[in-house]
Amino acid sequence: EHKFWSTQPVPQIGEGPPAESGPIEPSVPRDQVRQEAYALPKDFEWVTVDMSNEVQCKEVYELLSANYVEDDDASFRFAYTASFLRWALMPPGYFASWHVGVRVKSSQKLVGFISGVPVKLSIRNQVVDATEINFLCVHKKLRSKRLAPVLIKEVTRRVHLEGVFQAIYTAGVVLPTPVSTCRYYHRTLNLPKLVDVGFTSVPRSSTLARIVRQTKLPDKTTLPGLREMEAKDIPEVETLMNEYMKRFDMIPVFSREEIEHTFLSGKGTEPMINEARRTDQVVWAYVVETDGKITDFFSFYTLPSSVIGNTKGHKMLEAAYLFYYATDAPEANMKKRLYELIGDALIIAKDAKFDVFNALTLMDNWSFLEDHKFGKGDGLLNFYLYNWRTPPLEGHNPLDGGK
Ligand code: YNC
Ligand code: MG
User: Fold this and answer.
1) Is 133 in the pocket of ligand 1 (CB under 6 A)?
2) What is the predicted ipTM?
3) 109 CA distance to ligand 1 middle (Å)
4) Domains in the chain, ordered, with CATH?
5) Helix 256-264 crosses helix 234-245 at what angle (to 10 degrees)?
């Protein structure tokens, strides 16, 4: 039973798949949107967090570092960096008012957060101006007090005030009602560390040395013409992505400015950890240039997790997450080409000192996960739409069978 979610414009449990796609409730003009903020318990107040302000950005970073998403046995907690949060929350056309905080009135301590950013989605070829909601977090000491629904209602109100009535969000928890569910897969890059921190264990039937040998990657990338993406590649990457993404039923529609922001603005300025990585680099984006033409593209982002038990002196698990990719390979050659691209992504991530490379069972990932020795994880990620009905997104993904 969902006291809050049963009141919201989302497909309710047991409703069954809809016959058609579309909004659940109508959009309304701005003057019909509630003008006053929702009421908080008396000791708390709303704030709009200014993510361009170093101090405020750090406050969000600190709230999340200590209180954000943990795995099921509380061994790891997502540790989004401040640069990541700035990059994720300030895309072109972002609304500062969608960065919603809750402070304790007396101490001004930040104890709650939720954010939205604008995103254009194409869902079964219907284009929807939506918001992507992320980083919902309530301090551990204030859990189970029904603060989350107030945060959700307040961000919804602020989104409505800008004329947006649909949202997309993901969560590990099951709520009414996922439009799709993906599983995490993990590719080992630094086995000894993954074993030390308890992320992986060596099966009795094997040894550390044997698995290191079995998962060893080539020293050098293999694709001729592979190089880091640059500003001059933006138009070609845009075309390549637009074409390739037509394969899927729910996709973001990026403007040129969004492509630049998403793939090129996150390179960082701080000192290099080694030749392959800056301490504050968020995104890695590569293209394959063949005879002066961009034929392929891939990207991944960094999302470290803190090791909660601080096992064997390791504070952080450095994880890379596969992000968008695209290729102009014809269908008959697609599987092979994607295998090659992701192979090079793994090598680059290893050079950049990542411990593990994660990917979800979405897009065409099913076609290379097992061949590249990704292991099936325990974690699932549910995708949700707010105020939009559509039949479940099935994809063309044989690994879905193993949900
Ligand atoms: C969740 N993750 O079911 P019912 S993901 C949505 N997303 O409501 P209370 C959630 N709803 O079932 P707590 C949720 N988790 O009674 C719980 N809920 O109807 C629902 N964790 O509230 C829950 N971050 O305040 C229940 O719970 C109600 O104190 C209970 O707070 C929850 O960012 C939370 O996992 C998650 O910080 C804040 O546990 C807290 O437990 C926490 O008593 C660690 O709340 C961090 C964490 C969530 C990451 C994410 C996406 C969020 C999407 C929110 C929904 C957006 C809707 C669209 C809005 C824009 C619309 C437009 C236009
Ligand atoms: Mg609460």
Assistant:
1) yes
2) 1.00
3) 20
4) 5-180 (3.40.630.30), 182-379 (3.40.630.30)
5) 100
